Amino acid sequence: MFLIPLNKINLTFCGMMGSGKSIIARKVAKIIDFKHIDTDKLIEEKMGKSISKIFENEGEKRFREIEEEVISKILNKKNFVISLGGGSLINKKIRNIIKKNSFNIYLDVSIKKLINRLSSSQNRPLIKNTNLKSKLIEIYEKRKSFYNQADLIINNENNLSKTINDLKKKLKINEKNN
Asked: Can you point out the beta strands (E) in 6-147?
């Protein structure tokens, strides 16, 4: 398994909202026979409400505290493919645990492509009732230095199959004998 020589116990996917972290992570987990966890979904289950409601009722600061707690716990487990929330890497503690316990993959997608993917999204609190393009640029500018520290950067502009094939090549995953 490709993670063993790297001394890593998990695989994480980071990137902007709409970059495809959840779908790619779910597919990769199936291929390498790991469990998949989406940290935003886990937070929603733990809190019993949507991310939007958490932001609305308790604020972003509280959401980030819950996110740190949930991600810290998950990253101490083993053999997981984890889709991280888009903003999770702004937290230094989370970045340190990721560096220690996972191989982190940044799914890079242009702002133009993100606008296409997110233009009808109603459940993302950071872009609700804003100028989508300028808000995405603002968010990306704050996070890009963290994203670019990933162990691997993969472009996810094209189709899902191409991204999965690129990942399998880069990670030297052979589905027959992983």
From this structure: 10-14, 35-38, 80-83, 102-108
Q: Is the dihedral of CA 18, 43, 154, 33 positive or negative?
A: negative
**What is the fold, at CATH topology level, of the domain defined by 10-170?**
Rossmann fold (3.40.50)
Percentage of the chain lying above the pLDDT 90 cut:
71
- pLDDT of 15: 97
Q: How many residues are recorded in the chain?
A: 178
The number of angstroms, rounded, from the C-alpha of 143 to the middle of its chain's C-alpha atoms is: 12
Mean pLDDT value across the chain: 90
| Contact (Cβ atoms closer than 8 angstroms) between residue 140 and residue 107 | no
Q: Strands, DSSP E only, in the chain?
A: 10-14, 35-38, 80-83, 102-108, 152-155
- Strand ranges inside 8-124, DSSP E: 10-14, 35-38, 80-83, 102-108
Annotate 108-137 with b (16+ C-beta within 10 A) or e (fewer). Answer: bbeeebbeeebeeeeebebbeeeebeebbe
**Six-digit token string for 52:** 């939007």
Amino acid letter for position 167:
L
- Whole-number Å distance between alpha carbons of 65 and 162: 35
Q: Report helix, strand or coil for 7.
A: coil
